[in-house]
Design goal:
The protein is mainly alpha-helical. It has 19 helices and no strands. The chain has three domains: 211 residues, no CATH class; 207 residues, no CATH class; 76 residues, no CATH class. Helix 2 packs across helix 9, helix 3 runs antiparallel to helix 9 and helix 11 runs parallel beside helix 16.
């Protein structure tokens, strides 16, 4: 049992990261309520546009940094090249700093041109200037997080993410209010004062992002500092005699980061292109009013994507944990362990994805009403597609990580590029021919992710000789989720007929759903005792289940 648990420790580490990720998103949902009120309509628009630009630059600069660095570090550690691992860390820090400064200066100096010429919104410039140094911090932060992830330790990353979001929430609210008041005082003309208030409030909101990243970086460097003696002792144990020059280290960093960056960019670029494609076709070709198209896009981006990305983030956390773990096993040539980790990662990803997707499909409208107000019917229809989106993106995310973990860095690039090309053809057809509207975007997202997942599955089989198991990975989790979905639906609707309270029965339905799904997993033997030991508090869970003769 101990050996098995050791081999599957990435599940525990991934669970820690996933738990932190969920808390981060919950905090994000909570603090956005007062922030949105402070920003107002104008400020919210400036804030959203500024972040669209920022997210593109983050995608191009630092988003792939933790994964790429963790891959290199884990490979060096597996080969016991401890001195070279330290060189990689220092070289990556320099690379991240240079890249971050370059992107930061690009945004800071180009903020005026971007805001006035490209977006025709001069009032977003202050928010862009505040976000500029955040790019530098984010790049360096990504390197340090990747360093610890490469050692198989996700705790520093998890803690830093929580600190980052707490600081972000605190500073965003205070700074948005204070700078909004200051902005309003800059003009005696009411209309202009209102616009300046929104502009400066948006800048205050983005100041929270910078502050959060800065405190997270400070914490990560603190963890490095308190472990410096451990790292020195480990370096002294290096008996390999392999000493790589910094020029060689630089090449390794570039040849690892570049394909991961390209893959990440292609994989995520579809989300950035969907909006202009949708808006241009709906307004320019089908002559749907701007108000209607914007309202429908708001439902999609503000509700559907917001909720579906939460369970997908769990798959992303598992992916972060599995890459260094796979690298070590693959480098060691332990094919059996590699296949075992691939199987377990995919299975756990689906065990999480199916119930989360099913829950949003059945209760999505009710959850949106609970969190954001409005009627249940406003979002119920679009949320039906949740199970397809969550499962497809979870599977494509984990399979991308598997291929990266076995050194097939170019394969996710090729597969994502094929899927993106198909998406860019398929989406206009859905909008123009089938008149699918916003549902065309939803279906297009699902088909893109599913195409990536299928192509990745063929690639994993090709390079590992891996034969996919279907019953315990896909069929049984789906059946258990269906049981959960029926339970969830029945509890809510029967209860609601007795007491007309959406809050009460949404919460009760979620509780009953969790219990029903857990029991279904155990009774159908979808998850084994050994696999339960791989999750946090697994031993305690096993003991409880054995006491009730459920295991």
């Amino acid at each position: 049992m101990g050996k098995k648990s050791g081999k599957n420790s990435f599940i525990i580490q991934g669970s820690i990261l996933a738990f932190a990720g969920i808390l981060v998103r919950v905090i994000g949902l909570i603090y956005r309520i007062p922030l949105n009120r402070i920003l107002g309509a104008d400020g919210l628009g400036y804030y959203g546009t500024a972040f669209e630009i920022y997210n593109v630059l983050i995608l191009l600069s630092s988003q792939s940094m933790p994964l790429a660095v963790s891959k290199i570090i884990s490979e060096k550690l597996e080969r016991k090249q401890y001195k070279n691992s330290q060189k990689v860390f220092k070289g990556a820090l320099l690379y991240g700093t240079v890249l971050g400064v370059a992107f930061g200066l690009l945004l800071f100096l180009g903020s005026g041109w971007i805001s006035t010429t490209v977006y025709k919104q001069p009032y977003i410039a202050p928010a862009l200037r505040v976000l500029a140094p955040t790019l530098t911090v984010a790049c360096v932060l990504g390197v340090v997080r990747g360093y610890f992830q490469g050692m198989g330790n996700m705790v520093p990353t998890a803690v830093s993410q929580l600190l980052e979001q707490i600081m972000n929430a605190f500073v965003s609210i205070i700074a948005a209010y204070q700078l909004g008041v200051y902005g309003y005082s800059l003009s005696k003309i009411a209309s202009e004062a209102k616009l300046l208030k929104g502009s400066y409030a948006a800048a205050g909101g983005t100041l929270g992002t910078f502050s959060g990243a800065l405190i997270a970086l400070a914490f990560m460097f603190y963890v490095v500092w308190i472990n410096k003696e451990v790292f020195k002792k480990r370096a002294k144990k290096d008996k390999t005699g392999v000493v790589e020059s910094y020029s060689t280290i630089t090449k390794i960093i570039l040849f690892t980061i570049t394909p991961v960056l390209i893959s990440t960019t292609i994989y995520n670029i579809g989300n950035l292109l969907d909006n202009p494609i949708y808006q241009n076709i709906m307004q320019g070709v089908l002559h749907i009013t701007r108000e209607k198209t914007n309202a429908l896009w708001g439902v999609y981006s503000g509700y559907y994507r917001l909720l579906t990305t939460m369970p997908i983030a769990i798959a992303s956390s598992l992916s972060t944990a599995i890459v260094p773990s796979l690298v070590r096993s693959y480098t060691a040539g332990d094919d059996g362990v590699v296949e075992s980790k691939v199987s377990l990662a995919q299975k756990f990803s689906m065990i999480i994805a199916f119930p989360c997707g099913m829950g949003l499909t059945v209760l999505g409208g009710q959850i949106n009403s609970l969190l954001f107000g409005g009627s249940v019917s406003d979002t119920s229809t679009i949320m039906i597609f949740s199970i397809f989106t969550v499962v497809a993106f979870s599977l494509s995310t984990i399979s991308n990580a598997i291929l990266q973990g076995i050194n097939k860095l170019n394969v996710p690039i090729k597969n994502s590029a094929i899927a993106l090309a198909a998406h860019l053809v398929f989406l206009p057809i859905l909008l123009l021919v089938f008149k699918a509207g916003i549902y065309g975007v939803v279906i297009g997202d699902f088909t893109f992710a599913m195409t990536v997942a299928v192509l990745n599955a063929f690639s994993i089989k090709k390079y590992l000789g891996y034969n996919q198991e279907y019953v315990y990975t896909f069929i049984k989790p789906f059946i258990c989720s269906a049981v959960m979905g029926i339970t969830c639906y029945a509890v809510y609707h029967i209860g609601f007929m007795i007491i007309k309270s959406n809050v009460l029965w949404t919460l009760m339905a979620i509780i009953f759903a969790v219990v029903a799904y857990g029991l279904a997993l155990i009774l159908t033997k979808t998850i084994s005792k050994e696999e339960l030991y791989s999750v946090p508090k697994g031993g305690m869970i096993v003991n409880i289940l054995e006491k009730f003769h459920l295991l």
